[in-house]
Amino acid sequence: MSAIYILWLRELKRYSRSRAQIVASLGQPMLYLLVLGFGLGPVFKRAGYGSYFQFIAPGVIGMSVLFSSIFSGLGLLWDRQFGFLKETLVAPVPRIQIMIGRTLGGCTVALIQGSLVMVVCLIAGFRPAHFFAIPLALGFMVLIALLFAALGVAIGSSLQDMQGFQLIMNFLVMPIYFLSGAMFPLTNQGKVLTFVTSLDPLSYGIDGMRSVLFSRAMFQPAFGTFTDLAVLVVVGCILLVFGAWRFSMIEI
Amino acid sequence: MIRVRNLKKTFGQFTAVNDVSFDVEEGEIFAFLGPNGAGKTTTIKMLTTLLKPTEGSIELDGLDPLKQQNEARKRFGIVFQDPSLDGDLTAWENMEIHGVLYHVPHKVRRQRSEELLKLFELWDRRKDQVKKFSGGMKRRLEIARGFLHTPRILFLDEPTLGLDPQSRNQLWTHVKKVNEAEKVTVFLTTHYMDEADRVAHRIGVIDHGKLVAQGTPREIKDQTGTENLEDAFLKLTGSTIRAESADSADAMRQFAKMWSGGKR
Predict the structure, then answer these.
(1) For B2-259, which CATH superfamily applies?
(2) Total-model pTM
(3) Which end of chain A has fewer CB atoms < 10 Å from its terminal CB, N or C?
C-alpha cells in the first residue's frame, strides 16, 4: 500500500512542479472553447441546437482529461529508457502495485487538469442546469481519467521508443477525441458515424457529463446516463486489467 | 555471495551470454570487464531479476532470484548504466521513495538517508531538484540510494562513465569506504582498466558472451605476461573494435543528451 501511495504522490509532485506545462496544457482546450465555441455559435443556433458554447464546454473538459491521462501513461516510455522506471522494477514490490500507483497518479493529475478547465469554462460563461450537477460531472471525469490512464499505461508498456508517439497521437488520441461527440451532437447522424462514435469510450464519458450537466430541454443524451456509466465502468475495468498485464510484460 | 553456474542468454539467433560460471565471495569487490557488446549488461540484468536466463542458475546470498524474487531484490542495490533518478524530485525525495519501495521503516529511513547523504557529500543539496545536479553528483546520489536499504550486494554498471577524474576518484573512495564499513559485496563493470586494477579484489573478463579469464589483477597480468591491466585486457580480447549496432536505447540516449543540454 505504501508503495502505491508514494508513487501516486510522485506523480502529483511532478505535476505541481511543472507550472509552465500546466499553463501550456490549458492553451489547447481554451482555443477550442473560445474560438470554436463562439465562432460556430451562430450556425449552431440557427440549426436549432441552442448555444454552442454551452454544448462544447463539457467536450473541451473531456478533451483535457483525455489528453492528460493518456499522456501520463505514455510518460512511461520515457521513464522506461531513462529514468525512474528501472528503479521501481527492481524494487521488492509487486509490479501490479507500481502500475496502480502510476495509474492513480495519472488519473488524479488528469482530474485536476480537467477541473482547471472546468473553472475556466465557468468563468467564461458556462452555466450547468444546476450547480450541484458539477459533482456528478466530476464523477464522470474520474471514470474517463481512469479509463484512459490505464490505456496510456498499456500503450506505454508496449512501445519501444518515442518513434511510436506520433503514430499514437494521430491514429489513436486525435480520433478518440474527434469521434467522441465532444464537438458535435451524436444524435441524428448517419449510420456509419453513429456506429463508429458508439465504439469510442469517450463518447459515453462526454454524453454522461452532458446528461448530468444539462436539462433535458437543452440536451438529449445519445445513450442515457446509466448506459454511459455502465460502459465506462466495464471498459475501464477491462483496460485496467489489460494495462496491468502489459505492464507485467515489460522487459528492460 | 554470488554464485553463477553455466549461465546462458539468447535473443533469437544471437547468444549474448554463453555458459558463464563464476563466484563472488562476501565482502569482495569484483570487476566484470569486457568490450562493448560482450554481455556485461545482460549478465547484470539477469543477476538483478530484470531478465530471465535462458539456461543456468544464479544464487544471490543463498537465494534463487527467479523463485524468491522479492526476497532476492531486498538483498541487492543497483546503479544502472543510465541514470534512474527522478530529476523533478529533490535528492531527499528520491531517497524517500527508494526507502518506501524497499520497506525501510520510517525512522531508520530518515537516519540512514541523512548518514548516506552526508557521507556522499550531498547533504547540503538535499532540498535541490536532482535535474540541477552535475553528472558526478547524480552518480553519487544513485550510489547513496543503492546503499539505503543496507543491501548485501551492490551492482554498479559503468558507474564512472562520463565523469571527470576527480569525480571518479571520489566515487571509488566512497564505494571502498562503504565496502569496508558494511562488508557489502560489490559487483561492477567499467571500461577504465586503471580503476579495475586499483579497486577490484578480483576480475572477470568476458568477451563474445564467454568468460575468458578470471582472477586477481596480479594473476591476470601474470597469465598474459603483461605489465598492466590494459595490455592484459587487449591481449585477451584482441584489439579489433566491436561493431555494436545502434539500438533504440542509443537513439533515446542521443535524444536525452540533446534535451539536457549536454549534461548526462
Answers:
(1) P-loop containing nucleotide triphosphate hydrolases (3.40.50.300)
(2) 0.86
(3) N
